[in-house]
Structures are given as C-alpha cells and as structure tokens.
Amino acid sequence: MMVNFGSDLVVNKRRSSISDPSLDSCSKSINETVNGTHHYTIKGYSLAKGMGSGKYISSDLFTVGGYQWAIYFYPDGKNPEDSSMYVSVFIALASDGTDVRALFELTLLDQSGKGKHKVHSHFDRALESGPYTLKYKGSMWGYKRFFRRTTLETSDFLKDDCLSMHCTVGVVRTRVEGPKPYTISIPPSDMGQSLKEFLESGVGSDIIFEVGDETFKAHKLILAARSPVFRAQFFGLIGNPDMDKVVLEDVEPSVFKAMLVFMYSDELPDVNEHSGSISTCTSTIMVQHLLAAADRFDLDRLKLLCEAKLCDEVTADTVATTLALAEQHHCSQLKTVCLKFAAAPGNLGVVMQSEGFKYLEESCPSLLSELLQTIAVVDENSSLLLSRKRSGSNNFGLNLAADLAAVASVDPNGRHMRRRL
C-alpha cells in the first residue's frame, strides 16, 4: 500500500506544470504598403497617334517598394479591336520580380482647374478583391479601354496637345514584429512645469506688466508664441519689439497672474490659490474673469477650459452673471447650460431674485426673450405634471414667468417697462 501511494505521488508531480512568464513569447505579422507616385506628362499627343495598335510610349522608370515601374500609354489602343476607339494605359513591372503584390491608381488630370480628374483606383477595391499580383517582369495592370479617343480629344484633359497623369503604386510588404528586447520607462512631459518655474524665477524676462498695484515679469517670445494679441503687440507690423513695459487696465492682478500661469504651463491654474479664497462663489467669479481675459488675448484653449468649468459650477446665485458672460464672449455651450438651469421650475424664482439677474436685464436684455423661450420648452415638457399639481408653488412659478415677460418688454425709446401682467 505504501509503495503504490508513493508511485502515484511521483506520477502526479511529473504531470503538474508551472507557467513561467519569462518563457512566454509573442509576435505579430504586419501587412502594409510602401507607396510612391510618379507624375507623367505626354506632350504632342496628336503626333503620337497613328503608330498602330499595340505600340506604346512609356514614362521613365521609377522605383517603389524596391521595384522599378513604368507607365505605358497606347495612343491607338493595346488591342487591334480597340485601335480606332480607345487609348490604353498600363502600369508595368519593369524589373525582375516574382509574384509582386501591389495596389494601383491612375489619375488623368483635368487641366481646366475644375478638379474633375478621372480616377481609376485599385486602392478602393483592396478589401474586396485584394492586391493585384504581377507574376514576372513585364506584367501589367491597367485599362485597355482607358478613355474613348473622340471624347478625350474634346475634353479638358487635353490642353495644348498635352496630357498629364499621376500614377500611384503601393507595393505590399509583410513584416514580423517580436517583443522588444528592452523596456525603457518614459516619464510624462514636464515642459509646462519647467516653463512655469521659469516664469516664477523671472530669469531672462524682458517685459514688465503693470496691472493695478502689482507688476509681473514675463518673456515676450513665450507670450507671442501663445497669444496672437501679444504677437501683434510685440512683433506685428505696428508692434514694438523694444517695448519693455505694458500697462494693463480693466483686468485684476490675480486674473492676469492666473492667465500668465496658463500661458506658460498650458493648464488651468488653481483659481482658489490665485483668488485667495476657497468659496465656490468666489471661485466662479474668478473663472468668469479669466474667461473674459482669455477672450481678450485670444487664448482659445483657456477660454474653453473656463467654459467647461463654469458649466460644472452653475448655481442659482451665479447663473445670471455667467449667462451674460456667455452671451458677451460667444460661449454657445455655456449659454445653453445656463438657460436650461435658469428655466428649471425649481431655480427660476431664486434666479430672478439674485443680484446677477439685475445685471443680466441691464447688460443683455435680449437674453430675457431667450429665457422665456426656454421656459416655454420646459413647461411644454412638463405640462402633464403641471396639470395634475395645481398648487400654490405652480402659481408662483407662473407669476415669475409673467414678471419675466414684463421685464423683457421695452418701450419705443428702449427703456425697460416693469409691470405685472
């Protein structure tokens, strides 16, 4: 009994196996084309006619994918039966090769400038029928009836007795890739951080900005590379490359500093850090000002980053001012988000009581009509619910809409008329 048990144990050990990841292997075959294009022009087309069917003129040899090729043009057709009707064009393998697989494209150029070229492409049919195989030197791909002669000679393809065509050859190659014998860890780019530190150090600065009571050192080349406005100011036709000081008005120092940090780092800065507050409302106001600055200095990426952040931070207290900002600086997505938020039944009353709403009706009165339209859409979508719940809160919402309609009306002289409908 003991002997048999021991034998079984030995057998089980022999059958068991442990996979060693270091012994695993992999590879992949990659099929691709090596492409090249040859431009072929035939001058004196009429002089080439009459040489007889099967006779051709050819382009110079050109090389694609390690093989030589040539374009053959048959002015009287390749076959006798086509001699009086069609011209023929072929691409030929002009060097030694066996079973060369390739894709082809022949383009006869429209010389009128209208761009209506005649294209015969094998690339478009690659997935359907696969590449064409040329068995040996002299094998051809092309068209016996490439173009009817009478049509060709009265078309825009023939100009000043000249034809022009492009020929593209794509030679199919297969290569095998195995695992790389090395592993190199590449860290993420730190260029933004390095430039940010460069800004903070002031090393090599050549321009000073006076913003309010604060001054900021910067580098004209970096600012010009980032902002078309600064590029024109420093290096444009009426710019001054020797300028060493700029006084900026209508922008807060903290906003300008945040904008500078973005221009060097390409990242939206921590607005709480620059505003010195952790309040959500203060943060929103900071981003609003930063968006305006981004629009002023043509910083499209910063503008979009601010727009996205404001979309995430819409509240009843800030939506009115954000809506006005979106209108003034052409932020369509932010505008839509604000209109839908303000028109929501649960938000409309609070929004109309906010200080920002007073600013909205003074600065962008046209938005009130758009807000009314948005409310109408919201009311239409929730009409069934409103018909079932005839509560005081609904009447309150309807009264708010009426107030809004009154606010949106103006007299012939352009003054707002506040009245309850």
From TrEMBL:
Q: What is the lineage of its organism?
A: Eukaryota, Viridiplantae, Streptophyta, Embryophyta, Tracheophyta
Q: PROSITE patterns per the record?
A: BTB, MATH
Per its UniProt record, what InterPro entries does this chain match? BACK_BPM_SPOP, BPM1-6, BPM_C, BTB/POZ_dom, MATH/TRAF_dom, SKP1/BTB/POZ_sf, TRAF-like
Q: Could you tell me what this protein is called?
A: BTB/POZ and MATH domain-containing protein 3
Domain named MATH is located at 35-169
| Origin superkingdom | Eukaryota
- Which is a GO BP term held by this UniProt record? cellular response to salt stress
Matching entries from Pfam families are given as: BACK_BPM_SPOP, BTB, MATH_2
Q: Output the SUPFAM superfamilies linked to this UniProt entry.
A: POZ domain, TRAF domain-like
What does the record give as the function of this protein?
May act as a substrate-specific adapter of an E3 ubiquitin-protein ligase complex (CUL3-RBX1-BTB) which mediates the ubiquitination and subsequent proteasomal degradation of target proteins.
Q: Which family does it belong to?
A: Belongs to the Tdpoz family.
Query: In what pathway does it function?
Result: Protein modification; protein ubiquitination
Identify the residues that the record assigns to the BTB domain, covering every copy. Answer: 205-268
